[in-house]
Amino acid sequence: MNEMTKLTIKDFETDQEVRWCPGCGDYAVLKAVQRTLPELGTRPENIVFVSGIGCSSRFPYYVETYGFHTIHGRAPAVATGLKLANPELDVWIITGDGDALSIGGNHTMHLLRRNLDCQILLFNNEIYGLTKGQYSPTSRVGTRSPSTPFGSVDRPASPCGFALGSGARFVARGIDTHKKLPEVLKAAHAHRGSSFVEIYQNCIVYNDDVFSGFTDKANAAANQIWLVHGAPMLFDGGTKGMTLDHAALRLRVVDVADGDWAAAGVIVHDQTNKGLAQMLIELMPEEGFPVALGVIFDHPRPTFERAVVAQNAEASQGKLPDLQKLVSKGQTWQVDKEPHAL
Amino acid sequence: MASAVHDVSLEEAGSHPVPESIVVRFAGDSGDGMQLTGGQFTLSTALAGNDLATFPDFPAEIRAPQGTLFGVSAFQINFGSTAIETAGDAPDVLVAMNPAALKTNVGSLKVGGLIIADAGEFGARNLAKAGYAQSPLEDGSLARWQLLSFDISALTMEAVKPFGLGNKEALRCKNMWTLGLALWMFDRDRAPLIQWLHDKFAKAPVLADANVAALNAGHAYGETAELGGAIRQHHVAPAPVAPGLYRTVTGAESISLGLVAGTQLAGLKMFFGGYPITPASAILHHLSRLKEYGVTTFQAEDEIAAIASAIGASYAGSLGVTSSSGPGIALKGEAIGLAIMTELPLVIVNSQRGGPSTGLPTKTEQSDLYQAVYGRNGDAPMPVIAARSPADAFDCAIEAVRIATQYMTPVMLLTDGYIANAAEPWKVPDMAGYAPFPVQFQEDVPEGGFKPYARDDKLKRPWVKPGTPGLMHRIGGIEKQVDTGHINYEAANHQAMTDIRQAKVAGIADSIPDQDVCMGEAGGRLALVGWGSTFGPIHQAVRRMRARGHDVSHIHIRHIWPLPRNLGALLRGYDQVIVPEMNTGQLKTVLRDQFLVDARPLNKVSGQPFRIDEIEAAIEEALE
Ligand code: SF4
After folding, report:
1. Cβ-Cβ contacts under 8 Å for B495 (sequence gap 6 or more)
2. Which of A248, B198, B370, B552 has the fewest Cβ atoms within 10 Å of its own Cβ atom?
3. ipTM of this complex > 0.90?
4. Beta partners for A197?
5. What is the mean pLDDT of chain B?
6. What's the confidence (pLDDT) of residue B17?
7. Start and end of every Pyruvate/ketoisovalerate oxidoreductase catalytic domain (chain B) (predicted)?
């Protein structure tokens, strides 16, 4: 491939047979990624997909780039070394709710606080698929599974809440089969720093339709709000919007008549506002709110690997590597006499 | 130590029938600066041309309650005019800065040895904390030894009075006063130390001046005070060593330097992922200052991230290195398996300490050999190298880098708390004498297409940096198909890949030297087979016994896995084989398993190194 050839989706497909269950949401995400990659302008050899363990973590085998299928929960740590060793690489982390928030929660937190430049796609299916259906750290209370036959009793973690709390500077949400997913991926890629994307992914075998309350065609319009920076927060065909209840300091749904959103008090999305992001990620259909989707928060900060590279360069300034000098450092003494000359 | 400085033959050893060597132990409260005192005394000893070995022995607590028995910190140095290989068995001189230091250390002092005690610290409270009903300085209980006690605290206060320090700061200078006295006793030059104090306290000249004054006062005290017969000035002649440039080095330093040298010889950059743990942290500290050598250091969020990031860096084309101690190595186990499966180069340094679990963080032990050789799930072979001394660790680190990069495999380098912290003179190596072993990354698509798990004649797979056009591929922890590296669960393929991984690591034996006998003959009545930091006491014990005419040899193994090809035949040439180890018999088991030899254990797990006489006794018993 020379620089002039335009890359296509075909260029990012491998010869490996894709082995997810038929109907799994992972297929749709794979397609969305393969469709997005040609538009990013990065050569395939400069892209690395790093994953942990779980159904979604098979992902790297199916993308014609470099790829590393690591061990459970550790993808962020492997990616950190990879990116520090070669900051020019375009690094994508593929993970799931168990991988990123249970066994690898510590690494996810530290990756986000350090702000390593990479994309993290967290496939949230609220279940352990690969190990055959146990409840996960994002499963709702009452989830019946082989390990919780009477329903789970512990409260779920919020992936985006975790990310924001860990210091993430880019937090977005998408849905596996939604046509806007590539747009979200592009925005994540454009952001310099750790870009955290939670993707609602349907596990057709162990947790089918867990998101249908807001993903089914019939429910989508009324239960999804797609955020656009600088645009009013409207949903349900523009008939509803979000306003800020100043007294209660929280978001509220208002009706919009004749498209006059300003009159209804609908606010404009500001993706650099962390307080607003915090309120948006907590909106839940069960409480009468739409699910916030798209780019919720995007406010770049200097990245970890750039800071490391800069400090390495600064500390090395004016010093030439000289092994002989290095081993001769410290207080030395010369012995001139021949051995046994005492 | 003999390994690095000189090898004195038996005849030479015999020609100095009374080897002039002295063992001094400085002991005090952990806040008294004993490690610093010992370190500086070591330096001036080295500068005086004596051979030496040291043993820092400090408590696990950072700031243990003052005056308590468990808060005692000690530093032992053995120096002399002949080869010194151990920190010495029983001290000749004990400097005790308080009652607790006296109580915990006096038992090991030679009968007739000298105690120097700070009488100013032997008040009722400190005596009670150490469990003394009355002052041992006055009740005659120390009659077996020579006792010299005076109020070092008061003398120090007096010496630093002109500098207007607070009480606490003034008393901090006590260690320099004591050091001054020690320098006088052993006829040492004060100048380098005074220079060092001025450098150390460059930002606080008053403190520098006060410490120098304390040092000079201690020295003058020795010179002028009428100390009676107990204390006199000794002059220990310089040891005969090969000419050249020398410096002192601790194991943590020499491993860091060796890793840097190794990566430079391989033509690579180094990525070091570490997580703080005693006694391994010093390597992270050293390397973090060597950025101009292409070193990136990363303090990770945990032990697992430390190794996982190193693996990521190796995948990117740097040499990934990680280091820890037993408990941390346990956490890294799964990731080591990943490096074995993906066949990426990696160096893992284990500074062993007493175990299991948290065990004895500041005490030394060699009990992670099983963990190094066997401690992973699955059939997961990995080369293991063990350093015998601080100076030897330099070459071992280079060797670990060579094997990792030439065979695409993780390598474990074993050291221990003793090697990491102890200092010894080191003849500065001539770096021109080290042959480079540059890494060849695969950059072109070979004929017939690229196969990430194709093998060369050493069974090494190619190393490809992401970013290389045309060679994109995927690796991971799932079993690989032979050659293609695709996921493969087939029975025959797993058998084939397991065999290949095994054969690759076993084949490393072709690139390592035959096992030598470091003292004695290749065959005979008895061989003592050691590994790691037991080198010094074993070597000295064998030397002494041979000088008395016994047929005993010393074999010390660097390559723990794979073992040298000739080792089995070599061991079978002895009537008896004894394996002294600071564990319950781990190398012994491996040797028995590999060679069906009747290797017998000699074990010690007290957190202290072997004493020479303990090993002598075992030799005596075996040869009776
Ligand atoms: S178990 Fe669920 S998540 Fe896993 S591949 Fe099957 S459908 Fe997809």
Report:
1. none
2. A248
3. yes
4. A121, A172
5. 91
6. 36
7. 31-219
Q: Domains of chain A: which residue ranges? A: 9-210
Protein residues whose CB sits closer than 6 Å to any atom of ligand 1: A 20-21, 24, 26, 55, 125, 129, 203-206
Residue B599 C-alpha to ligand 1 middle, in angstroms? 54
Does B132 lie at the interface with A, CB-CB under 8 angstroms?
no
Indicate the residue of B291, B304, B312 with minimum beta-carbon distance to A312: B291
Indicate whether A3 pLDDT > 70.
Answer: no
Cα A45 to middle of ligand 1, angstroms: 29
- The predicted pLDDT at position A207 comes to 97
Percentage, residues of chain B above pLDDT 90: 71
How distant is the Cα of A68 from the closest Cα of chain B, in angstroms? 5
B418 touches A: beta carbon within 8 Å = no
pTM of the model: 0.90
Which of the four CATH numbers 3.40.50.150, 1.10.15.40, 3.40.50.300, 3.40.50.920 does domain B517-623 have? 3.40.50.920
Residue of A nearest to B254 (CA): A327
Whole-number Å distance, alpha carbon A200 to ligand 1 midpoint, is 13
Q: Which of B501, B502, B479 is nearest to B491 (CA)?
A: B479
Specify the residue with its C-alpha closest to ligand 1, atom 1. Answer: A129
**Is residue B226 very low, low, confident or very high in pLDDT (cuts 50, 70, 90)?**
low
Chain A residues whose CB is inside 8 A of the B291 CB are 311-312, 315-316
Beta carbon pairs, A and B, within 8 Å: 215
CATH of B17-228, one of 3.90.1150.10, 3.40.190.10, 2.40.50.140, 3.40.920.10: 3.40.920.10
Could you tell me which chain A residue has the CA closest to the CA of B196? A331
* Same fold for the pair B17-228 and B247-433: no
CA–CA dist A325, B290 (Å, integer): 12
Structure confidence at residue B18 (pLDDT): 40
Residue in B291, B394, B468 nearest the CB of A45: B468
Q: What is the pLDDT of residue A228?
A: 98
CA distances in angstroms from B341 to B274, B344, B474, listed in the order given: 22, 8, 13
| CATH architecture assignment, domain A9-210 | 3-Layer(aba) Sandwich (3.40)
